[in-house]
Structure formats: C-alpha cells, structure tokens
Design goal:
288 residues, mainly alpha
C-alpha cells in the first residue's frame, strides 16, 4: 500500500512528536476544522438541547446507524429501520442489525478505547459479526489467506495489506492515540476511520466498525460528547462514490489526498449536524 497516516507517521527518532497534529496543518484542513467546530457549537447551543438532549442523541444514533448500513449496501428507509424487530432474515437485515448494535456499543466503549483501541475494535467486530460470520473469525484481526467481505463497491481495488502489516499498523495507530495528540478531533477521527477502511483488519463489517470507531473518537475528544452529530448520515448523503474517491486520497498518503479525506469527513460531520438540528427543530415544534 502507498504511504499512509499510520505507517508514515509512526513514532520514531526522526519523526515528529505528534504526527497527527501535522495533518491538522495541511492546506484546507484548519478551515474544515473551524467550520465543523462552528456547526457543532450551533447544534449544542440549540434550546432543545437544554432539556431533551437524550431524545436528540437517540434519534442521532438511529439515523447514524441507518446511514452506516446504507453505505454497507443495506439502504433501508428510516421508517423501515424503526418498524423492524427481526434483523436476522437476510444479509441486508443482518447489516442493519449490526449497525444498530454498533451504534449502541460505541457509547459504552470509551474507557476501553482510551486504554486499548485494538481491544475496543475487537469488541466492535464481535458486536457486529457475532452470529453473522464464521465464529472462529469474529472479534480478531484476519489471518493470512482469510478472505475479506466488504460490500463497498470499488474498495477491493485498494491494495489489501497482509495481516502482519495490519497488526503493525494497528499497533502504531493505537500507540499514537494512547500517547495523546493535539490534533483536532476531526483529524483524529478521520485518520482512524480512513486507516481502518484501508486496512480492513477483519473478515467482515470493516466499514461499520470504522464508522463506529470514528464516532468514539469524536465523542471522546469532547467535540461531540453527547453523540448527537451523526457523521455517518453525512457520509451516506455525500454518496458511496464520493466516499470511495476521498478514501483513495487517504490511501495515497499524499498531503493532498490526506487533506481531501479529512475535508470530506468534515463535510460529512457538518451534514450530520444539520440532521440533528432538523431533529431539534422537529422536537421544538412537537413533530417528533
């Protein structure tokens, strides 16, 4: 694979002390960070948030899960997701069920994430794939020769790292996160999201896991502590083709490509914020 965030910025005697922060200074990224901050401030300042933030968070979780499943090929309507109680009928139903479980689980994993991101990722995969994938492959990174099922059209064209590289890069990324960074939350979340999509560390559900991990980063950073800004909604709204094109930029490892991926994640987060503002407005009118 081409040079990427985790491999090119792993700690070393000649490398920067805070490589994620370096990404925050790429052209266009500070502007994306500021735009996201202003958008998040607006929704957190909405009067509905004073008394009904739990309702907004619940609705954001549902809409985020629906959108993440849509990116994974199960594009159900919000009404259908609300209506269903059985998510075991077929592959699409299992994907939607996995997205819903992951969104709920992400809110419980912040403590584990801070201590061991790799352990948290294993838990996310267990929650997503349990009962839907070969039991021996669930909750652990893939081994040599094991296939990867990834429904995002076009992602198979990106080089698939060997398990040894996957493990090394996961460890490097985890070390960066544990050591702390001054990088804005948008940058850290985008790197985690992009790295997991490129690595595809598990045999299944990598996209769902990557988007759930981004959510954990945004919550844990303090940017979105109540988890009311569903970036997944924005990623789905921007479209699978745009998502893949931006991911290719991340995979390239070039400054321009990395900046475009981070900016794409910023646009997605702003659209997620817009969705939650609409929820707040509906609650204020008594329509939701």
């Amino acid at each position: 694979m081409a040079t990427n965030a985790a491999s090119s910025s792993a700690p070393g005697p000649a490398g920067p002390a805070d490589p994620l922060a370096v990404l925050g200074a790429l052209p266009g990224v500070p502007e994306a960070v500021e735009s996201v901050r202003q958008a998040v401030d607006r929704v957190y300042g909405h009067r509905v948030m004073r008394r009904r933030s739990n309702e907004v968070a619940s609705e954001a979780a549902l809409r985020g899960a629906r959108a993440s499943a849509a990116l994974a090929g199960a594009d159900w309507s919000l009404e259908e997701v609300r209506r269903r109680s059985d998510f075991s009928a077929d592959d699409q139903a299992r994907t939607v069920g996995a997205a819903l479980r992951l969104t709920a689980e992400a809110g419980q994993l912040l403590g584990v994430w801070r201590q061991s991101p790799v352990q948290a990722l294993a838990r996310l995969h267990l929650v997503a794939a349990g009962g839907a994938a070969e039991e021996s492959t669930v909750g652990r990174p893939r081994l040599t020769g094991e296939p990867v099922a990834e429904p995002l059209v076009g992602i198979a064209e990106l080089p698939l790292p060997e398990p040894s590289e996957v493990n090394a890069r996961l460890d490097g990324l985890a070390g960066l996160l544990r050591s702390g960074t001054s990088a804005p939350a948008l940058v850290a979340g985008a790197v985690v999201h992009g790295e997991l999509l490129c690595l595809r560390p598990f045999g299944s559900f990598n996209g769902l896991v990557a988007r759930a991990a981004e959510r954990i980063v945004l919550v844990g950073s303090g940017l979105d502590p109540k988890s009311i800004c569903p970036a997944e909604v924005g990623h789905a709204e921007l479209g699978r083709a745009g998502y893949l094109k931006a991911l290719e930029g991340y995979a390239s490892g070039t400054p321009e490509g990395m900046a475009e991926w981070i900016a794409h994640c910023g646009r997605a987060l702003e659209l997620g914020v817009r969705e939650s503002v609409a929820v707040c407005e509906a609650l204020q009118r008594g329509a939701a």
